[in-house]
Amino acid sequence: MAFDLIVRNATLPDSRPGLDIAVEGDRIAAIAPSIEAEAGRIIDAQGYLVAPPFVDCHFHMDATLSLGLPRMNQSGTLLEGIALWGELKPLLTHEAVIERALRYCDLAVSQGLLAVRSHVDVCDDRLLAVEALVEVREKVKPYVDLQLVAFPQDGYYRSPTAAKNLERALDMGVDVVGGIPHFERTMADGAASVRALCEIAAERGLMVDLHCDESDDPMSRHIETLAAETQRLGLHGRVAGSHLTSMHSMDNYYVSKLLPLMQEAGVAAIANPLINITLQGRHDTYPRRRGLTRIPEMRALGIPVALGQDCCMDPWYGLGQADMLDVANMAVHAVPMTSREAIRWSFDAVTTVPARILGLENYGLAPGRNADFVLLQASDPIEAVRMRAARLAVVRRGKVIAEAPPRLTRLDIAGRPSTLDPASYRPHAPH
């Protein structure tokens, strides 16, 4: 029997070593030790980790790679970023948005990031960015799953035409209903926007992903309203609250009431550690709040928690490289959550958990699933997070679409090894 591709001697994320992965067409045909077969191509994994592709469940592709246009964010705050984006929007062209988005997708593929949920601003009456990203979604379909969220950046009620534009964007094929209740003029308007947006999603049979309570205000309560509306409208399993940074500053008693409401409603949480810790706490002196939501407490209740990148070289964040291991590594440090179990979980938070939130079909390493996976220069998921491991090969639907050499350093030191592989420095279990 012959296969199109066999990856030999791989370690899987569940720690099973020495396995071969056989691919036929665009699907995984078999996973077993020592598969006796020919193949059009054979990759020797050398015991390194093969994982399902990375998934970014919170991003803004309409703004990506626009850093410095038309100026820099001098304060580093969320509000100046929003104002700066407002200055840039009238200057956007269809071609420029497409060109930056496609370049970003190239970078994403090189990092093994093959699925992205991107919010796209609908407050420009031209809906230029929506049209551009709908076109990009089709262009990248062979190699990236791009899910779009209709996002009223300037406020569903605060922006005069946002409500109409959001419906137009959904009619154009945008996948998910978005919102930003904390940016409305009043808390009451924010709560009303949550209700209205959830009703639109219920009527259209769509998922919901709202920017929720992205502030340092401990009295921001929109995630509570989102959980209640999810219950009222029967949207269980279709709703995510992104950011939730105000929870970092909330009273513990209130949080002890809030989290069970989220758990009961089946609302997922999406934290964005790179951006949350740099945009939040900007009005503090010392101690300075880091702004990350309460990840360990939500996990303890079984609330699905995923990690997103949010931004990459745009008005809000001047760094980023489409690297979801960078996101996981930052979460481990910033929460902090340094147990072996928590570090291992952070790998799931950029792979399997966001895949479930996006509703990706046939995702994962099992026979019959899509032949989408990444070969990482690491022995296990914890080591991948620790090292932000090199992506040695990226496979999409059975085809190798990106490759890179392993990170190796040549040494010229008397009495020491001539070559250093950083993956060989993994800790060993005590005897």
Automatic annotation (TrEMBL):
CDD domains: Bact_CD (cd01293)
GO MF annotations in UniProt: cytosine deaminase activity
EC code(s) of this entry: 3.5.4.1
Record-annotated Amidohydrolase domain positions: 41-401
Pfam family, one: Amidohydro_3
Keyword field: Hydrolase
Keyword Hydrolase on entry: yes
Keyword flag Hydrolase: yes
Protein name: Cytosine deaminase
Organism this protein belongs to: Kaistia geumhonensis
Lineage: Bacteria, Pseudomonadati, Pseudomonadota, Alphaproteobacteria, Hyphomicrobiales
